[in-house]
Amino acid sequence: MSLLQALILGILQGLTEFLPVSSSGHLVLGQHLLNVQNPDMLSFDVYVHFGTLISVCIIFRKDIGKIVLSLLHALRTKSLRSAYETDEYVRLGLAVIVGTIPAGIIGLKFHDQIAEAFRDPKLVAVDLIVTGLILFLTRFTRGVTPKRLGMVSGFLVGLAQAAAILPGISRSGSTISAGLFLRLSPAMAARFSFLLSIPVIAGAALLESKTLVRQGMEMGYGPFLVGMVAAAITGYFAIKLLLRIIERGRFSWFAFYCFAVGIAGIILI
Question: Scanning 61, 83, 127, 203, which has the fewest C-beta atoms within 10 Å of its C-beta?
Answer without folding.
Answer: 61
